[in-house]
Amino acid sequence: xxxxxxxxxxxxxxxxxxxxxxxxxxxxxxxxxxxxxxxxxxxxxxxxxxxxxxxxxxxxxxxxxxxxxxxxxxxxxxxxxxxxxxxxxxxxxxxxxxxxxxxxxxxxxxxxxxxxxxxxxxxxxxxxxxxxxxxxxxxxxxxxxxxxxxxxxxxxxxxxxxxxxxxxxxxxxxxxxxxxxxxxxxxxxxxxxxxxxxxxxxxxxxxxxxxxxxxxxxxxxxxxxxxxxxxxxxxxxxxxxxxxxxxxxxxxxxxxxxxxxxxxxxxxxxxxxxxxxxxxxxxxxxxxxxxxxxxxxxxxxxxxxxxxxxxxxxxxxxxxxxxxxxxxxxxxxxxxxxxxxxxxxxxxxxxxxxxxxxxxxxxxxxxxxxxxxxxxxxxxxxxxxxxxxxxxxxxxxxxxxxxxxxxxxxxxxxxxxxxxxxxxxxxxxxxxxxxxxxxxxxxxxxxxxxxxxxxxxxxxxxxxxxxxxxxxxxxxxxxxxxxxxxxxxxxxxxxxxxxxxxxxxx
Length: 506
Prior knowledge:
Layout: H1 13-23, E1 30-34, H2 37-40, E2 42-43, H3 50-57, E3 66-72, E4 74-76, E5 79-80, E6 88-89, E7 99-100, H4 103-108, H5 113-124, E8 127-133, H6 150-154, H7 180-196, E9 201-205, H8 214-217, H9 224-248, E10 253-258, H10 262-267, H11 272-277, E11 283-286, H12 294-303, E12 308-313, H13 324-336, E13 342-345, H14 356-359, H15 363-366, E14 371-373, E15 405-406, E16 413-419, E17 434-442, E18 451-454, E19 457-458, E20 463-465, E21 468-473, E22 481-488, E23 496-505
Parallel strand pairs: 1-3, 1-13, 3-8, 5-6, 8-9, 9-10, 10-11, 11-12, 12-13
Antiparallel strand pairs: 2-7, 4-5, 14-23, 15-23, 16-22, 17-21, 17-23, 18-19, 18-22, 20-21
Helix pairs in contact: 7-9
C-alpha cells in the first residue's frame, strides 16, 4: 500500500501547532460515525465495488449537514478492516444471512474501505477521521466470535477473563491497558493509519468499550499508575500526530470519545483534565447516554479551548424515543447547552429518518420543528454492566420503561427536564407551540387522583388513555432550560412512573 502523496513540509512545530488549533475549530455541524458495517455486512447479491460501498452509507450523507465522517475499521484489538503490516486484516464472514464480508475482495483490488471513503471525502471536501475503537469486545459473544484476533489469542493473559469466567463489569474479551503490549499495538495501528491514509484526524473511541483495566473490570479502583499509563499513550499519540503533520504540511487532529461524566472518565483511568491541560486532544466527543448533563463536559473542554460534540445514538428503549422528533429534541438540547456540533452514532442513512442529516446540524432550523422530550431517550440502565457504582455518576435517577420509579403516596416527586425550544420563553397565550405532556404509568388505580404541576403551575386532571395521563400545557408556564415537574399521589396503591413525554408541536 502506497502512502498518500506528501505536501509541502512545515518546518517548525510552532507553525503546525497554529494550524492545528485553527483546524480544530472548523465547522462541524454533524459528525457521522460509520461503524464499518457497510463493508462487513455487504449484500451478497451486490458486486463488490468502491461505488457500491459508498452508495450504502457515504454518498447518502454527502451534501447534507454532515461536515465530517469518522470511519471505523476496528473489530477487535489486533484485527481491522484496513490493510496493515502490524495487525490482522479481518476477512472472515459474519453470521448474517444475505450478507458477506467485502474486505478480502477489496484487498485483492488493491484497496480497502478506509481508503475508499477517504478518497471520496477528499473529492467532496468532507473532513475524514479514522476511528480506532480502543477496546472493542463484540468478540466476547458466541455469535461474533469470528471478530476475535490472533493477537488476543496470543495474549490471553492480558484479557479481563474468559468466556467461562467473565468479570462483573465489561466483557471477558476486554484488554487490560496496564499491559505494555496492548498499548504498543494500539499505538502502532494509529501510527500506521496516520502514515498510510490521507486523513484529517484520528479518533480514539473510549466508549468502545470500557473498562480499560482488569482491576476495574473486577470491581477494584483503577490505580494512579494505570491512569498514568493511558496518559503516556496519549502523549505518544500526540507527538506522533504532530510529527506527521510537520512531514506533510497539514495538521493531524486527535479526537477522543469519552464517558458522559468527567468524574466517571477519571474513575475509569481516562484523565481527561490532564489531556486537555497538556493540549493532547483537539476534539472531545461526549457520549453516549448522558449520565450527567452534556454542559458539564462542554464547560470543562471549552475552558481549555477544545470543541465538544455530544453523541446522539439509537435508543435502547425504542418506541417513540427513536423518532425523528426525539432526535430533534436531543440535538437542540445539545446545541443550547453549548455544543459545537452533533456526533451521530449507530444512526445510518439506510435506515428511517433520513431527514435527520438535513436538520440536526442547524439549531435555528430546529427551533420551529416538532419535538419529543423524554427523561431518558437512550436507556441509561442498558450500560450499567460497564460501570461499577453506576448510581454515583448519574445526575438524577433515570426514569424510563427500563427503570420505573414508584410514586410513594404522600410524597412529592420533583423531576427536572431540559426543554430547549426558544419559543417557550417567548410564548404568547393561546398561540403555538402546542405543548402536551404524557405521564406514562404502571399499576395506576382508576380511583387514584394524580397531582401534576410544572414550575409551580397546577395542571388540571389529565385525560386517561390506557396507562397514560395526558395534559395540555400552556407554553407560558414553561421556559427554555430546566423545567421542574412535580408529581404526587395523595393515597392508595402506589403507581410506578415510567416516563414523562413532552411534545412541542408547531
